[in-house]
Design brief:
The protein is mainly alpha-helical. It has helices spanning 3-17, 19-31, 37-56, 59-73, 77-100, 102-113, 117-130, 134-149, 153-177, 182-206, 208-212, 217-220, 223-256, 259-296, 299-335, 339-348, 350-371, 376-400, 402-421, 424-438. It is built from 20 helices and no strands.
């Protein structure tokens, strides 16, 4: 494997994964053209709630991709089907739970964030519509994770691009033509989520291995295999819980500074999501190659994956920071045309230029560990980073206000990178031992 082979996988995956935050980003950008900043605040709060729900179960995509890649590397078709069926079963159960508990979830989230009354009203309106897209989104996580792990990159990119194009068209139609406001952007996202799921199911049905070897429920919930998968998922769940604790505390602090500051930080945070998901493309590429290396016990492939992951973490950081530095004003203006919000965003946007250099290794190396399904280091490093963030948050915000909030977030991002990097030598040792046992 070389740079060309790595990028041939990483670039389409970056395009694919960057579409994930685009649902919230498009909603923010569309309502950002409306005159009241409370619209942006409402979507920001609503987006945080759904990010919390979805990212807590983001392991459904990540672990599915890792197990599918290992099955692909071992040329085990049966395990490939089970790598899809097991998380699909979990996604169905989780979706049912979210739908049944939607009111308590909404009330608890709004009570925790405690936005202004008008922001809370819009957030509740947004939530009440988008909640019905939960089953489609979680099941689509599984479908996309499986397609990525199996190397079906083009089709996974196609699904997500089609979803976001549809979302953009419908959001503009519902808000600018039909004047539906918050309901318009939420309805557009719901329809796009359903479309992506339906198209994904159609693609799966075309797979001969899926049609001919659907496993019985007894095999899906086989205790040994299911326990291994749940162990991986538990670590990733804890990792995501820590991440969302940071994001939610960030939003709560933003809300405490007032509606305009909440709106400005929401715009900057949406831009941060876009940056982070570019790295996620490289992370997914590393995950797929690491998974195949583990499935085939290929030490050379693993070593090359580690090297290329590290190199592209550095290169991509320089490129992302340079692009934002050159075009920051234009990028911010895409999200809002409210002068006061733009002015506040430009006051604090220098932190986004630094962000790529603090976060890149944590985000890219994450893929190396998930591909190997060695997730305890991911869990541990995130817990340590959260503790560092909490210390920074409660010491820096009283001194520096919103600048202190962004500085605390960057310290957290740097902690993610450094703490996870400390586990790389141990991962190297495991791969080397595995390869020796086979040889």
């Amino acid at each position: 494997m070389n740079h060309r082979a790595y990028l041939a996988l990483a670039i389409p995956l970056a395009i694919s994964t960057i579409t994930t935050p685009l649902l919230g980003a498009v909603d923010t950008a569309v309502v950002g053209q409306l005159p009241n900043p409370a619209y942006i605040g409402g979507v920001a709060v609503g987006t945080v709630i759904f990010n919390t729900m979805y990212w807590l179960f983001g392991f459904l995509r990540v672990s599915t991709s890792g197990f599918a890649a290992q099955a692909s590397g071992a040329n085990d078709e049966r395990q490939g089907v089970l790598a899809l069926a097991r998380p699909f079963f979990i996604a169905l159960l989780v979706s049912l739970g979210f739908l049944l508990l939607q009111k308590p979830i909404e009330q608890a989230a709004l009570a925790m964030i405690n936005p202004a009354a008008d922001v809370s009203k819009f957030a509740s309106e947004y939530f009440g519509i988008r909640i019905w897209g939960v089953p489609f989104t979680l099941l689509n996580y599984v479908i996309l994770g499986w397609l990525m792990g199996m190397g079906r990159i083009k089709i996974s990119v196609t699904i997500q691009i089609m979803m976001n194009v549809l979302n953009i068209i419908l959001a503009l139609l519902f808000v600018n033509v039909f004047s539906w406001g918050i309901s318009g952007v939420a309805t557009a996202t719901l329809i796009a989520e359903f479309f992506a799921f339906a198209f994904g199911v159609f693609i799966l049905w075309k797979e001969a291995s899926i049609r001919t070897s659907l496993p019985p429920l007894k095999e899906i919930i086989d205790s040994g295999s299911f326990k291994k998968m749940m162990g991986v998922n538990q670590d990733l769940f804890i990792r995501t819980l820590c991440l969302l604790t940071v994001f939610n505390l960030f939003t709560m602090k933003s809300a405490s500074f007032g509606t305009e500051m909440l709106a400005a930080n929401a715009v900057l945070f949406q831009i941060h999501y876009l940056m982070a998901y570019v790295y996620d493309g490289f992370s997914n590429a590393s995950s797929i190659f690491a998974g195949k290396a583990k499935g085939a016990n290929d030490r050379e492939l693993y070593t090359k994956t580690l090297s290329l992951s590290s190199q592209w973490a550095i290169i991509s950081s320089v490129l992302i920071a340079a692009v934002y530095y050159l075009f920051s004003e234009s990028i911010i203006s895409v999200f809002t045309n409210i002068p006061s919000v733009i002015a506040l965003a430009e006051t604090y946007d220098q932190w986004l230029i630094i962000f790529p250099f603090t976060a890149s290794f944590g985000l890219v190396l994450y893929g190396l560990f998930t591909g190997a399904t060695e997730t305890a280091p991911i869990r541990n490093s995130m817990i340590f980073a959260l503790l560092v963030f909490l210390a920074a948050l409660y010491s820096l915000v009283p001194l520096f206000g919103n600048h202190g909030l962004w500085l605390a977030f960057l310290i957290f991002s740097l902690g993610r990178s450094l703490f996870l990097a400390l586990y790389v030598p141990k991962l190297n040792k495991k791969y080397m031992q595995s390869a020796k046992m086979v040889s």
